[in-house]
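It would be a great kindness if you could assist me with a short task in structural biology. I am sending you one protein, given as its amino acid sequence and as whole-number tokens for its backbone shapes. I would ask you to consider whether the tokens describe a fold that such a sequence might reasonably adopt. The full record is reproduced below for your convenience.
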Amino acid sequence: MAAGVGLLSRTNMKSNKFEIFDRFFGAHWFLTGYSCRYFSELLQEGGDRSIKQFIGLMQKDVNSMIFDVEQFNAAGNYYADKLINDIQWRKRMYDRHHADLKRYFVISESFRKLPFNTMTNRQIITAADPLIKLQERVRVLGVMLNGLVLDGRNHLSNKLRNEVAKFFGHGQDFETHWALLTQPTRLSIRQKKELAISKLAEKVYTYPSNKIEIKLRKLYDQYCWLDYMYYGPAATLESFKAELKDTQRNDKILHLPVEIQMLREKQRELMSRHSFTPRAKNLVRLAQHVLWQKGWRKDAEYHGFYCYEPMFREIAKRNGETDWRNLLYMFPWEFKSFVLSRKPSLGELKQRRAFSILVVRGPTDVKIFTGPKAKSLYKRFKLSQDFSKLKEARGQCAFPGKAKGTVRIVQTPADMKKMRQGDILLSQATSPDLLPAMKKAGAIVTNTGGLICHAAITARELKLPCIVGTVSATLVFKDGDLVEVDANKGIVKKI
């Protein structure tokens, strides 16, 4: 545990306003450690020095990202403008990120298949080292290009939307046009998986059952990690069999390639009809790319942690730890010292998991607090709020409409089982792994996100009322509350 007296005395919180800008559910320090440690340095690489420090809170597998409000907004505005206006820099950074993601995916898959139970500790360290280093690059660059910096207060989406809106006359249905223009026209990995299962479903009545079983198992091995997120577990083979059965009754996904081609044509026609300039077309492509690459980055990270699991299980076994997930609360740069000498201790890792705070002012100025010192520090940030008396939350309309229903808070795939048709889905932020629950929703409400976030795009496709960027909807409401969503006004309230 870090000695915190010196840091506490140097942290002048009275002159700063701190807020929680995002929360990651089912998270751990092995995931977010690098992006926390190198956050400020990464932004400086792009030319911005606004953020002087980063604070991360870990509490029972939920990681909250805390920033000085003024510093965060300055950085968000800077990077939104840079992505919009510096096309060469943007292309260079996105190409670099895409190449890293592809390499990370390939290396992690090979890593998963290693015989860890026959390897020495030093052999495991040597094998893990290149993967951990690549994870660092994937994580920190993703945070800047399609993550928290731009999403935290919608700096990029608002700037894109406002500029594109100028090409539509007063009174025209811009929201519908914006929804059409920002839909990605590249297949995601999840869509590729669904398409593959649909094509297999076509053959169920013409292929021998054992051949269908072999092909389905192959698809399972290829895609079972998609719902793993950062913590697991992977999907079961039974869930793939159920999906195959459902697809036999609904072959809509088979038309997806044609629908995407038609979408491209509609986007081109709309931009031509409204005389989009080359710059405006470029901004539309940027909006599509940010959303698509954010999904690709998350998929690569889900796959990466799925591939880490056999190694962590083996290391936990060697150290007499029954819950291998406790090891995920070491930082990546602590991996070697833990494997060789159990530093930090298992007791320290368990304390970090229960409640810990990370304060970073640079890659060499990193302090981790646990226990009473962490709780004392947290109080000084004055972040605790009493939401019990609040009856409504406000955000941004992502798709218009009204709905009434029962609140279901869905943060991870494990939460989806409580969704019923017509329930109001509330989440910190949605992602493709929550799509089955979203399809049942009467309306969707999120704490974070702007008009190019996953929730907004999906709600437009499903034509569901949707409010994004409420900041606190999942804290104001609880499972079972009866609420009314007025997406036209961006308001959700208890009734």
User: Anything to note?
Assistant: The CA atoms of residues 183 and 457 lie 6 Å apart. The chain has a mean pLDDT of 89.
